[in-house]
Design goal:
The chain is of the alpha/beta class. It is 31% helix and 26% strand. Strands 1, 2, 3, 4, 5, 6 and 7 form a seven-stranded mixed sheet that branches. β3 and β4 form a beta hairpin. The radius of gyration is 17 Å and the shape is elongated. It starts with a strand and ends in an 8-residue tail after the last helix. Bound molecules: thymidine-5'-triphosphate (TTP). Thymidine-5'-triphosphate binds next to α1, β3 and α5.
Length: 192
């Protein structure tokens, strides 16, 4: 029986990344209250949130494979998710300026008879940022739907001095690792 991938995510980035590698999917958006996960451990956090999102989406057919994910920035025992407002975003970027932080993504893949949880970590070092640079960046609105208040794939790329690990993990999905796991679930790129 051929398998069908369901992406349990509203993130345009995750949709673009799967499309980039020609994996066909349908979107089924999870509706969850992220504040119910209350932990300071970034690995626990991304795992629990990815699981919650994946379970919030109904499996409608026996051949469906559901993929859900969560991404956070971790810095000095703190977790930075999407900013609540302008001030929150300013404080995150001010904290990350000139330092190394980690970006964690948790990915849950589940089908009727199996389940896998992936956690991937990427280290990102920022150049020192001036207040003017941060304020201008906030005015572009790019930070507001992104964990840690920046987008490495956009203007946020100008902040990045060094990255160690998978770039795509920072954007929200560690692509090559996910593609390999999806094959185990019977999901392949078009024509493959
Ligand atoms: C650090 C960083 C995060 N992000 C994004 C990836 C995620 O979409 C977002 C973190 O929020 P998430 O809660 O992981 O995802 P989401 O709310 O966008 O989508 P859904 O829960 O429906 O799957 O931050 C970037 O796009 N670029 C970056 O450089």
């Amino acid at each position: 029986m051929s398998k069908k991938l369901i992406l349990a995510s509203s993130s345009p980035r995750r949709q673009e990344l799967l499309s980039q590698v020609k994996i066909p999917f349908q979107i089924r958006k999870p509706n969850i209250d992220e504040s119910q996960i209350d932990t300071n451990n970034p690995i626990d956090k991304v795992q629990q949130l990815a699981a919650l999102k994946g379970q919030a989406v109904e499996m409608k057919e026996a051949n469906e494979v559901i993929l859900s994910a969560d991404t956070v920035v971790a810095f000095q025992n703190r977790i930075f998710e999407k900013p609540k407002n302008h001030q929150d975003a300013y404080e995150m970027l001010k904290a990350l300026s000139g330092c190394v932080h980690e970006v964690y993504s948790g990915i849950m893949i589940r089908s009727l008879d199996r389940e896998e949880m992936i956690v991937e970590c990427t280290n990102v070092e920022f150049w020192p940022l001036t207040d003017e640079e941060i304020q201008w960046y906030l005015s572009t609105k790019e930070p507001f739907d992104k964990a840690g208040s920046y987008g490495i794939q956009g203007i946020g790329s100008t902040f990045v001095k060094k990255i160690t690990g998978d770039y795509y993990n920072v954007v929200g999905l560690p692509l090559s690792r996910v593609v390999r796991s999806l094959r185990e679930f019977g999901i392949y790129s078009e024509g493959n």
